[in-house]
Automatic annotation (TrEMBL):
GO CC terms: plasma membrane
Predominant localisation class: membrane
Domain Major facilitator superfamily (MFS) profile: 34-409
Taxonomic lineage: Bacteria, Bacillati, Actinomycetota, Actinomycetes, Micrococcales
Membrane association type: Multi-pass membrane protein
Organism: Cryobacterium mannosilyticum
The name this protein goes by in its record: MFS transporter
Compositionally skewed regions (Low complexity) per UniProt: 1-21
Subcellular location(s) per record: Cell membrane
Amino acid sequence: MSRANADATAQATGTTANAGAPEPARSILHQPTAVWAVAFACVIAFMGIGLVDPILPAIARDLAATPTETEMLFTSYLVITGIAMFFTSWLSSRIGAKRTLLIGLALIIAFALAAGLSQNVESIIGFRAGWGLGNALFISTALATIVGAASGGTSSAIILYEAALGLGIAIGPLIGGLLGSLSWRGPFFGSATLMAVGFIAIVVMLKSEPTRPAPIRVSAPFRALARPGLGVLAAAAFFYNIGFFVLLAYTPFALVPLGLGSAVTLGLVFFGWGLSLAVTSVWVAPLLTRRMPRTQVLWIVLPLLALDLLAAAVSIGSAVGLVACVVVGGLLLGVLNTVLTECVMEATDLPRSVASSAYSGVRFLGGAIAPPAATLLAASVGPASPFVGAAASVLVAVAILVAGHRHLGRANGRVDPLGQVDPLEEAEAIGAGDS
């Protein structure tokens, strides 16, 4: 990888490259304006994941839908997001990161508006699928763009990205609850408006790549999953995300019988959850990975998440207990999201955009299964059973990581230095589409 590529990337993202000594250490908050524009749009995009959480009971009531039908708002969104993730690196390598980001944002705006104007739950399910397509185009490209443009190297960029994820997930339920207290349509209109602001910010602040990106084969993400390290992490993330989305998508229905069914109340509960996630992703995860290998962090924190889900099952009749499990779950999920992402980005010598597309596609498909499966399980077995099933799924993720640990040496930083590209230069080049 040449320094010219890194310099070209710096020009594309509005940063400057130093041809001499390495830059001195900077605060994670000291970033180019292009990074903040993409990070702001990331916050809004991730709001879409938890936006509907507080209004699920209201949608079910006002549109005469069953809990399983309303949970399909998550599933249609996540299925299309997961499938589309496999093709985002192929598309962005041909039209460039900026165009891909803007197409994704435009789709989110259009389908969020359409969902807010819908008259039945089936239409909302369909429009959420379109929203998921836009989300996939944006999320996958945004991560590579932030890694390429951020100051402070790959780890700082990933922390910034995960902070945006956490804030988006936190703010999404809060805005969903506040606007949902007026009408279940409000959160959809609010999200479209904020995303339009993000669209304008990226148009103005993120410069286009000066050179045409080298094309990535459409089969690249599928071939990437054949790499043992990435395959192990993707399989573990599939089962981990089942636990993630049971806690996120099923818990509102578990709280309704306990007197916590209003949109504002649910919004505040999941605001606490998302805020906890953001705090641990930014501060606790780096602290842990500085003291022990990344895989060891996963081996410790994943079982704690399983215990938290079991505690939620035991607390199914207690509003205080269930809310506490939700907040504790957020603390654990923040660590896991950051550490898993860092593992994926370092586990192979593949372009990071390809690794991200492959991993994210599998991960979101796992999340898509959880919401309707949880409500069906609750109806047939009992209200606590989804949390038990989610705990079992998280333990499967632990078993996969333990069984495949011999393939994860690179994820922990143990690599053969011969022929390896400097991580910052590689990240910069990939950010410009030069893989």
